[in-house]
Amino acid sequence: MLRAPICIKDLVKGNQVWKMQIRVVDLWVVKEKTGQKHIELVIQDVKGDQIHVTTQSRDFKDWNDQVKERETYTLHNGEPVVNDGALKVCSNPLKIVFNGGTAMTKVPFPDIPHHKYNFHPIENFLKGSFKADLFYDVIGVLHEVLRTQMGGDGRKSCVNITLRDVEGNVIEVVLWDDYCKQFSAYNTSSTQKKSPTIIVLTHAWCKPNKVSGLPSLSNAWNGSRLLINVEHPQVEEFKASYVASDSSNAPALSLSLTSESSLQSANKNWKSLDEVKSIRAIAELRKDYFATTIGTTKYFKTSKFGWFFEACPGCKASNKSQGCKVW
């Protein structure tokens, strides 16, 4: 008697014998600390439910040769276990571990939906509506390039950017290592364009920024994808909505990245600094303020944080190094 296929929601912890018709909607290679590799993937059934799958490193070559993204298969057997990882790709309470009894046969199942991004709104991140142990897909327009640091001397390559959505919400995104290099290669080779630069980051991790305390996104070490101006129906839909939301939307500023540099913000407040404040008045401010000041620079000091100069006239601090500084 042939075994009837089940759906993802029918999986039960401990039941390793079953059959399922699925589509591979996401696939990536994980390099382990030992240097070995294994395949991880996200599969989807005809009802659109998804589950995270992980394989054994000993079977890497077999699965790497056999399983392809976007293709449909009949999946036989595997071990459903509790999805208790520190960071989760899917919200499904279970995940599947391929074992010695697992087999996959390529079969066309056109009724199984194709991959669709489940973008988490930037506004929800800013409101705290996210789980710290769950990865998300995010889309936005490149709004600013804040800072970049190229790798070397034990440091990782890193670039801080901000993304903006249709409603004007802005969130910071930190791209590390290869993702930083990918963005830098695009940004330095591109010229100012009439259309906005649309960025998609998959499997993004959200956590509070250590300095500002605001939610900030970063790529995962394995599985994230950085897609810039990719051709995709959802991306085109977002782009059309963004352009239509405000006809005065200017294209995102394309800034060249330089090593160890902090790049000037594209904030429109910098463009009209009509008010002039003294150095003393600026030193007494307790929040961000946009103004012009005039003074004479007598000397510069350097530190591991960069360069600065003393900027507080008549500072009463006994140790001059404790006085007010401008970076």
N/C terminus separation:
76 Å
For the largest beta-sheet, the strand count, sense and barrel status come to:
7 strands, mixed
* Count of DSSP-assigned helices: 5
Let me know the average pLDDT: 83
Please list the strands of the largest sheet in the order they lie side by side.
Answer: 5-6-3-2-1-4-7
Sheet/helix structural class:
alpha+beta
Tell me the overall shape.
elongated
Q: Report the helical percentage.
A: 10-25%
Radius of gyration, Cα only, in angstroms?
Answer: 25 Å
What are the secondary-structure elements, in order, as H or E? EEEHEEEEHEEEHEEEHEHEEE
How many strands? 17
**What percentage of amino acids are in beta strands?**
25-35%
State the low-pLDDT regions, or none. 248-268, 316-323
What's the structural blueprint in terms of helices and strands?
Blueprint lengths: L18 E13 L5 E8 L5 E5 L5 H7 L5 E5 L2 E4 L11 E4 L5 E4 L15 H5 L9 E14 L8 E7 L5 E7 L1 H12 L8 E11 L6 E5 L6 E3 L4 H13 L15 E2 L16 H5 L17 E3 L2 E5 L14 E2 L1
Describe what this molecule looks like in 3D.
The chain has helices at residues 60-66, 122-126, 178-189, 233-245, 279-283; strands at 19-31, 37-44, 50-54, 72-76, 79-82, 94-97, 103-106, 136-149, 158-164, 170-176, 198-208, 215-219, 226-228, 261-262, 301-303, 306-310, 325-326. It is built from five helices and 17 strands. The N and C termini lie far apart (76 Å). The radius of gyration is 25 Å and the shape is elongated. A hairpin with a 5-residue loop joins strand 2 (37-44) and strand 3.
Short description:
This protein is α+β, with helices and mostly antiparallel strands. It contains 5 helices and 17 strands.
